[in-house]
Design a protein that fits this description.
eight-stranded mixed β-sheet, two-stranded antiparallel ribbon, 22% strand, alpha/beta, globular, 39% helix, 10 strands, Rossmann fold
Length: 224
Amino acid sequence: MSQADLSRLAIGVLGGTGPQGRGLAYRWALGGLSVVIGSRDLSRAEHTAALLRDRAGSPRVSGTDNAGCAAESDLVVVAVPFDGHAGLLTSLRSPLAGTIVVDCVNPLAFDQQGPYPRAVPEGSAAAQAQALLPDSRVTAAFHHVSAVLLEDPAVSTLDTDVLVLGDDRAATHLVCALADAIPGMRGIYGGRLRNAGQVEALTANLVAINRRYHTHAGIRVTGL
């Protein structure tokens, strides 16, 4: 999909006031794409949208509540804490019907030994999303992208690959293009949605790497 094709889409970001969602929205706004910030708090969504319009120099950023974001968007990224994941998606089942949903939620926990993946009955946050949204086209992506780098205006390119998983090939192709729209980033098909669990869990390893080496590590796939 070309940049021109992407520019016709409204990209919703549920959790767009948090670091990950806000960072992704900022990068897409920089690229001239249309972004809708969703939040439980309408005023926070509108405030974040105003900040991003200013930072990105783009008028194509708006803010609304989560239900409005789901209804207005052609594609919706879920970037919320895992504890609120199931409740939010259950409440949005109707407006998200038929929509491509990109789940980038990492079910992690932390103790004195560091980060570790949480057990999810469905196998992954993305699989949970598909179970809760049977009429949506669920994909999994953007798990390993540093929010710090996304939000840093001094960082012009992001040296990372994005694994995109899903059972709908047209949907995964579009999400790969969405990753490619961010300079330095590359979207790579990573398999079926049933394989999302290990991708989400790998984030715990990256957090551990970042803490040990004081960096913001991503991943690169060789041979492509």
